[in-house]
UniProtKB/TrEMBL annotation:
Protein name: Parkin coregulated gene protein isoform X6
Superkingdom classification of source: Eukaryota
Record field: transmembrane: none
Region (Disordered): 1-30
InterPro entries linked: Parkin_co-regulated_protein
Length: 92
């Protein structure tokens, strides 16, 4: 019968005797601008939010829109001695 020594176990390969160095993961953090976190090495500053200036906005109901939708333009032709002029109709 063979008696094992205390503390002896399966032998480790030669490469595992040195402690492994942890590989640093380059994780970039997204943060707001003008903060302390924005000055860190691994931070990426987010851009500003969209302002919405290019977004289509619905037209508000106006008197002109009401006449335009039904095909009756609120303009009138004034026949003058010099020239014909376009004038707005009185909407009241």
């Amino acid at each position: 019968m063979v008696v094992d020594k205390a503390g002896s176990g399966p032998s480790k390969p030669a490469g595992d005797r040195c402690p492994r160095q942890r590989e640093k993961k380059n994780k970039e953090q997204a943060c707001d601008g003008f903060t302390i976190r924005a000055m860190m090495k691994n931070s990426v500053v987010r851009g500003p939010p969209l302002a919405g200036s290019q977004k289509e906005r619905p037209a508000k109901p106006t008197a002109f829109r009401k006449f335009y939708d039904r095909g009756d333009f609120p303009i009138a032709v004034e026949h003058d001695t010099i020239a014909n002029k376009i004038a707005w109709k009185d909407l009241t």
